[in-house]
Every structure is written in structure tokens, then in C-alpha cells.
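User: C-alpha cells for Purine nucleoside phosphorylase, please.
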Amino acid sequence: MFPEAGTGYSYEDCMATADWLMAQTDIRPTVGIVCGSGLGGLADTLKDQVAFNYKDIPNFPQSTVHGHAGRLVFGTLKGRPCVCMQGRFHLYEGYPVQKVALPMRIFKLLGVETVILTNAAGALNEDFKVGDIMIIKDHINMPGFAGNNPLVGPNEERFGVRFPCMSDAYDRELQQLAMDVGQDLGYGEFLREGVYCVVAGPSFETIAESRMLHRLGADAVGMSTAFEVIVARHCGMRVFAFSLITNQVVMDYDSEEKANHEEVLEAGKQREQQVEQLICTMVTRIEHNNNYA
Ligand SMILES: O=P(O)(O)O[C@H]1O[C@H](CO)[C@@H](O)[C@H]1O
Ligand SMILES: Nc1nc2[nH]cnc2c(=O)[nH]1
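Assistant: Done. Predicted C-alpha cells:
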């Protein structure tokens, strides 16, 4: 079998990590949440917390990016057991794409049925504004076209099939639920939907690259999420994801704007409360009748 036990990627390694975590907490999460850049505050709202630093978890990568605390937090949201990644991994940190998405397999082995992923992203769609929340309906995996797909390598059948379908990657019922919850909360004015494009980073896009991505059908661009989604769907979890629009991508040679990580984190802070409320309310309304596995 490949990858072999001891490499940190094998089924046995993932099982060892999940067993280690389950031995330290009685919380058995059915919802797994990934906090994007500047959006880690959500994890702090969990009740009855049991938290682990990534450095203490066997086989877990380490967070190296400002705005990603590097803690795995178990707890409850309105009584629902959840696990929350306060910080995720990115290709540009130097991790192989399999490692970037590895926590999704740990989620699966912990009993997670629904994954909610958040990220910070730049708007390519000119109708979007900073502070908009874009429900992701589909993605374009740019690094995937060059072989950076987290399922590359011999397939581990215990997780899923060799050729998983991705035309239904983003659960449509959960997208509708997010729209309904957003309307109920009075967020209609800044709730959008669109296509997320992942690039490898860490450099932000050139103007020519941004124009190209927009023409290809992307509404927002970032450096994460799609890899996690592919692995989560491969192992049969339902997926919901959204982008917080933290900046307008520069598409005009006359513009003086310059993308930077500080504005990304600041935009996260500005929308923190609404993001938390949206997720918290969704979690209370999610039905766990997962038919995909
Ligand atoms: O996707 P998340 O982790 O939210 O972070 C986004 O923000 C960072 C750039 O400011 C990049 O890591 C990009 O992917
Ligand atoms: N690639 C990319 N990632 C981002 N994350 C937040 N904003 C951006 C952006 O403009 N481009």
C-alpha cells in the first residue's frame, strides 16, 4: 500500500492521529470547520473546549502563516459537537498537496459528516465588494492542471474511489441553507455566490493573471480550500464553503492598489461577527442524513 505507514499520510497514520485525539476528548464531532485567514475567531466561540496545538498532534503539519493560530479546537456550537481548525495549511508553505488536505481524512475518521470551509479571497468579479461573503458553488484548481491534486498517488480505497466525481463537490442543499440563513440574519446585501479559483501563491496575481482567471469563469481567487474539498468529497463528507472577499483584485494598469496580507486580515476582523453568526446558525440547522458515503 502507498503511502506507507510511518510517512504520515497512510490510512494507519491517519487512524493513529484520530485515535490519539479521541483518547483525549469525549467530544465526537459531526461537523468539521476550517477557519480561513483572519477568521480564526470562530473557534473561540466553541463551548466546552478541548484544544490542541498542532505541534502536539501526531502526524499533523504546523501552521506558519500569520492569522492561522495552529490549534485544533473541539467543542460545541449551540450544543452540536464540532471540531474547528484554527489555521490551515497551504501549498506555498512548502507542504505537499497531500499534507495540505490531510486534516480532512482525520475529520472523517473522527466521525465528521459535514465540513464547512472558510477562506479569505480576492474579488475578480467586479460586482463584488470587500466584506461580501461568497458562497462557493464550484472551484477551479489551477495547480491541479499541473498535477497538484491531493489524490495523486495510489488510491486508498478505505477512504474512497479512484475517480471521485466533483461536479457535485459543493452540496446544493447546504448552499441553499446558507442563503436562507443569510437572508434570515439580514445579510442579503452582502451575500453572493460564485466560483473560487485556487492558485499556489504565495505571490498575489499579476494583472494579466487576474484578467485571465476572470475570463476563465472565476469570481474570486485564493490559495486554499479546493484541495481540502477534493479530499473531503473523496471520503464522502458533505461540503459547504464560502469566501470572505477581503480585497478587490487589481485588474487595471492605472490602479494604485497593491494586494497585501494585512488588508486581508483586517477585512476578516471587520466581518468576524457576521461570519460566526452565519456558521453558528447553519450548524444548528444542518441535518445529518449524509447519503454520499
Ligand atoms: O485561504 P486562506 O487560508 O483563508 O488565506 C488566504 O489569505 C492568504 C493571503 O492573504 C492566503 O493564504 C490565501 O489563501
Ligand atoms: N491569490 C490570492 N489570494 C488571496 N487571499 C486573499 N486575497 C487574495 C488575493 O487577492 N489573491
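User: Anything notable?

Assistant: The beta strands are 31-34, 47-53, 71-77, 80-86, 114-123, 133-141, 191-198, 220-222, 238-248.
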